[in-house]
């Protein structure tokens, strides 16, 4: 059975949504991707939606929505995106913090940089799962 991975941040609107989309795109055969936060936003960050659509041809407006921690199933791996405030707490067998800066309100270059870092980290996470470096 594939492990379930939750990408979490406070608002579940930008970085965690990007990670959910890229997790599904690149590593759907290795793990199931979910994202959630402690506060809902009415929409996903539209700059993130636009950049992910331009770079990866995924329309997050159609495939994803803002979710609370209680809206997703129990997960095996919890990835904190990097919260400057207190990060949401979610139980998991493996927890790590990627410490990513929030690009909200910044330039497209910052969004692109964030997306590329997330892509790289997702591929690395999948490799560690496959190599059983992460104990589940």
TrEMBL record:
GO biological process terms on file: response to arsenic-containing substance
Supply the name of the protein: ArsC family transcriptional regulator
Phosphotyrosine protein phosphatase I domain spans which residues?
3-128
Q: Name one Pfam family in it.
A: LMWPc
Instruction: Please give the Gene3D superfamilies that the UniProt record associates with this protein.
Output: 3.40.50.2300
Give the record's keywords alphabetically: Arsenical resistance
Q: Which InterPro entries match?
A: Ptyr_pPase, Ptyr_pPase_sf
UniProt cross-references to SMART domains, sorted A to Z: LMWPc (SM00226)
């Amino acid at each position: 059975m594939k492990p379930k991975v939750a990408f979490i941040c406070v608002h579940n609107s930008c970085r965690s949504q990007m990670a959910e989309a890229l997790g599904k795109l690149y590593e759907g055969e290795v793990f199931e991707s979910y994202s959630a936060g402690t506060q809902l936003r009415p929409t996903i960050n539209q700059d993130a939606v636009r950049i992910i659509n331009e770079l990866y041809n995924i329309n997050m407006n159609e495939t994803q929505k803002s979710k609370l921690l209680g809206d997703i199933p129990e997960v095996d791996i919890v990835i904190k995106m990097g919260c400057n405030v207190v990060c949401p707490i979610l139980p998991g067998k493996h927890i790590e913090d990627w410490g990513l800066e929030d690009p909200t309100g910044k330039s497209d270059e910052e969004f692109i940089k964030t997306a590329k870092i997330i892509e790289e980290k997702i591929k690395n996470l999948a490799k560690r799962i496959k190599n059983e470096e992460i104990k589940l």
